[in-house]
Design a protein that fits this description.
Helix content is 86%, strand content 0%. By secondary structure, the chain is an all-alpha fold. It folds into 2 domains: 7-59; 79-149. Helix 3 packs across helix 4 and helix 5 (79-113) runs antiparallel to helix 6 (119-156). The longest helix is centred in the middle third of the chain and has 40 residues, at 38-77. The structure holds zinc ion. Zinc ion binds next to helix 1 and helix 4. Zinc ion binds at residues 7, 10, 33, 37, 39-40.
């Protein structure tokens, strides 16, 4: 077995040498050869630079992505945008209820007062109003109940 290693033997081992993947004797042989051979030393230096560059790019990419994810998270979860969403939804629901309620009320009142309308229609409108009033009172009662319970809890704590 020849102990003399030529550049052809060393070159394929250079990347393994950089990554510490060679056995101790192999890496010793590579180190020894690189000390004596300018060509392989230059190649090793080039590979080292390339590896460092790749690592730097990978790190940069990761940092960039992580920063972007964090920024997006913050944007989606920060208090102002959550409040804005809640307020916007409340406005839509409230506005919709008020406008549709107004139209139902106006239309209902007109039909109710129009005695030429059939009795079943006037009866249905009356039922609708009574039903709405009932629902309103029920919701109000529930709100008051939960308010009382909240107060009670606060006192107890
Ligand atoms: Zn060489």
């Amino acid at each position: 077995m020849s102990q003399v290693l030529t550049c052809e033997h060393i070159e394929p081992m250079l990347s393994g040498f950089l990554d510490n993947e060679l056995s101790q004797s192999e890496s010793q042989r590579v180190a020894l050869h690189v000390k004596q051979c300018e060509k392989c030393a230059a190649l090793l230096a080039e590979m080292k630079t390339m590896q460092n560059d790749l690592q730097a790019i990978a790190k940069q990419d990761q940092g960039h992505t992580q920063a972007e994810i964090d920024a997006l998270d913050q944007l989606l979860n920060d208090t102002p945008s959550r409040w804005l969403g809640t307020i916007a939804w409340s406005l839509v629901v409230m506005g919709g209820l008020i406008v549709s309620g107004f139209f139902v009320y106006e239309l209902g009142l007109t039909l109710w007062q129009d005695t030429t309308q059939p009795l079943w229609l006037r009866g249905a409108i009356a039922a609708l109003y009574v039903g709405f009033a009932g629902l309103f009172i029920m919701v109000l009662r529930q709100r008051l109940k939960s308010l009382k319970t909240d107060k009670y809890r606060k006192v107890k704590l």
